[in-house]
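Problem: given the chain below (301 residues), write out its structure.
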Amino acid sequence: MNSPAPKFIISELGEYHGVQFLLARDELTHPELPGNKWRKLKYNLQEADRLGLNTLLTFGGAYSNHLAAVAAAGRLLGRRTVGFVRGDELAGQPLNPTLARARTDGMELHFLDRETYRRKHEPEVLATLLHETGPAYVLPEGGTNALALPGCAELARELLVRTDFDVLAVACGTGGTLAGLLSGLDGQRQALGIAALKGADFLRADINQLTQQATGRTYTNWELRTDYHGGGYARLMPELRQFIVDFQQRHGILLDPIYTSKLLFGLFDLAAKGPFQRGSTVMAIHTGGLQAWGGFGGEPG
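Solution.
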């Protein structure tokens, strides 16, 4: 399968407190592999081909966008996929919509107890898992490694060519997308990450480490905000749900409940509080993840 054509649209969201907001609709770039998940997979898949490994092995929680994306990529590309899911208590329960779709797409699901899951990247633990599954190309949780960055860098470079902006903003889970955007910006403009999980201060070091691995550089033109997680990674507070409903009514765009909703909620709040310069333009990125609504009772409406 060829990579999705970079033909996403850019939606104008209007002016808030003197700041212009744009939204790069990366969730529209591919019907089954939208947004940053495809971009992070692209060069990893090429590396798996180079190594002659047809099996993709990866990790994720019960509602992981990454697991869903790897399973879809496996079906589309004719790859075997294996997913290790956090929480062995899930093994005897009916599959949620995310996991059911992953299995329909051909992914072999294994459920790990949480202690083993925390140790999944230790060499002896990983060796045991590979002994069970056979040779495989291992993708980390969330798909973030040095090879994830070039695909995200392509998005930043395209945005620089297509339009003018002062700040490029994205939601952060593992930090890989922001790290890739930084390498693509190459010191131009400012970048802002909004963490989607609690206690995300560690991401600052992770992002610097990723850019160093991928480009030999670290960057200073970025900031990470950790105060808009909305109660935690998979929490959807009533205030955030109402924001999503209001945003869809105003702009005709559905946001996901975990990432881009928190990004835009945070950006609009920051615009009201004043850290953005009046007259500046903020480009936000819709990274997809709409399949996660299956874990929240379906899309709002």
